[in-house]
Design goal:
Layout (H helix, E strand, L loop, with lengths): L3 E7 L3 H12 L4 E4 L17 E2 L1 H6 L7 E11 L4 E11 L1 H14 L3 E3 L4 E7 L2 E7 L3 E10 L6 H5 L10 E10 L14 E5 L8 E9 L2 E9 L2 H6 L6 H11 L7 E13 L7 E2 L2 E3 L14 H20 L12 H11 L3 H13 L2 H13 L2 H8 L3 H7 L5 H19 L1
Helix pairs in contact: 1-3, 1-7, 7-8, 11-12
């Protein structure tokens, strides 16, 4: 078995597999190490709501046969109001989608090693030159990429990321049949992806219903272990309890039944990234946190970061004598800030404001969105400061003060 490659990638999720896909298409020798067994890939615990938009499908050449349902609209709900926006999208069968990325990159020559848990970087003269996996096995590469998500075994040991618990988001999702998709008194969710802001259901986070055809849908919730969650959560409730509570109290689920084998769990971090790379190394996907404030869109962000890392690796490897030093890999950070998460600070601010707001403010937000043009929401979601300001009201001053205090506490905690 070969033990030397141009690029070694840890993790076969959307970021790692897309990076391998681009590198293999350019003719590089690339190996991907994936913890899961191939016959189990991907396990139920390693899945996503898989809602995305046509821009991602087109940009990455994703085939229609991994789509469960194409959608025509996105819906935002608050406890008593809702807002509907016409916007086409796609709900993916995430397992099929991930397997497609692996298969497509394999067709171009990428090698995959399943049942391969990456444990540590191999260092020589202060630089990473390879990784160990499954305890005592080793593989070497000119460039090493960590695409393992929040576990980040390489990025953490190299001091690249510091994923903080107070920014840790955890999620749970079930697929159901028997859902009343067009329930009177609620928005029509046929061919729609819906996100609900309601601390009774997801304190410090959001819940969702993504229509997948007929009376079926993906239903789940996610919350961040932040100050807002501490304020609104119940001490005796787990994330499973919150989902059960929603299912028991929302009339749309009165006749709903879970589909066997369709339970998913996952996690991510919602925080501003600190560092992206060092000599011969890049961190991609959920290893470097990024977020679309309203829609999440984690798939697109991961794919974009994988592509940016592949382009960066190519810029070094295609030239003889150009070493993949931290200085030469700095183009990855530039591409990340330009293509993956532009205006990252403002987007994080928008996210924190959303989750810190009380329920009655969510109702006001739905009414505000109905009177504003759609461009305001789209621009705010992209971190446009003027658009974010349009969504604020005079009564939001205490909210802004609370957010400023939370940020100051975090900064002081890091300093001390």
């Amino acid at each position: 078995m070969n033990d030397r490659y141009d690029v070694v990638i840890a993790g076969a999720g959307p970021a790692g597999a897309q990076c391998a896909r681009d590198l293999a298409a350019r003719g590089y020798d690339v190996v991907v190490l994936e913890t899961e067994a191939e016959d189990e890939f991907p396990r139920q615990s390693n899945k996503s709501t898989a809602g995305t938009f046509h821009s991602m499908m087109a940009a990455f050449g994703i085939p229609d046969d991994v789509v469960m349902q194409y959608t025509d609209s996105v819906v935002l709900e608050s406890p008593t109001e809702h807002y509907v926006r016409d916007q086409t999208g796609a709900v993916l069968e995430f397992a099929d989608f991930k397997r497609y990325l692996v298969s497509d990159s394999r067709d171009d020559g990428a090698e995959y090693r399943f049942d391969a848990r990456v444990t540590a970087p191999i260092m020589e003269n202060g630089e990473i030159v390879g990784v160990t996996y499954n305890g005592d096995e080793a593989v070497y590469g000119d460039i090493v990429i960590d695409a393992t998500g929040p576990s980040a075994p390489l990025a953490k040991k190299l001091g690249i990321v510091d994923l903080k618990r107070e920014n840790h988001a955890i999620g749970i999702e079930y697929e159901f049949e028997g859902i009343d998709i067009d329930r009177p008194g609620f928005a029509d969710l046929r061919d729609a992806m819906m996100l609900r802001l309601d601390h009774e259901i997801a304190p410090g986070g959001y819940s969702w219903i993504f229509h997948t055809g007929d009376d079926t849908a993906k239903v789940g919730l996610c919350y961040i272990q932040n100050g807002s969650h501490d304020q609104y959560s119940r001490d005796d409730f787990t994330i499973d309890d919150y989902l059960s509570h929603w299912l028991e109290t929302d009339p749309r689920f009165r006749n709903a039944e879970p589909i066997e084998g369709k339970q998913h769990r996952g996690s991510a971090h919602i925080q501003e990234p600190e560092q992206f790379h060092t000599d011969r190394f890049m961190a991609i996907g959920d290893t470097v946190p990024s977020l679309d404030p309203l829609w999440g869109e984690g798939i697109n962000k991961c794919m974009q970061s994988g592509r940016a890392a592949a382009a960066t690796a190519d810029s070094c490897l295609k030239h003889d004598g150009v070493e993949p030093t931290a200085e030469n890999l700095a183009v990855y950070e530039t591409l990340w800030n330009r293509d993956v998460a532009p205006n990252a600070k403002n987007r994080l601010l928008m996210t924190q404001l959303l989750y810190l707001a009380p329920n009655d403010r969510y109702d006001d937000l739905m009414r505000d969105l109905q009177r504003l043009d759609d461009d305001t929401l789209a621009k705010a979601n992209k971190g446009n400061a003027r658009a974010i300001a349009k969504l604020l009201e005079p009564g939001d001053v205490p909210l802004l003060i609370d957010l400023a205090k939370q940020r100051l506490d975090l900064d002081l905690g890091s300093f001390l």
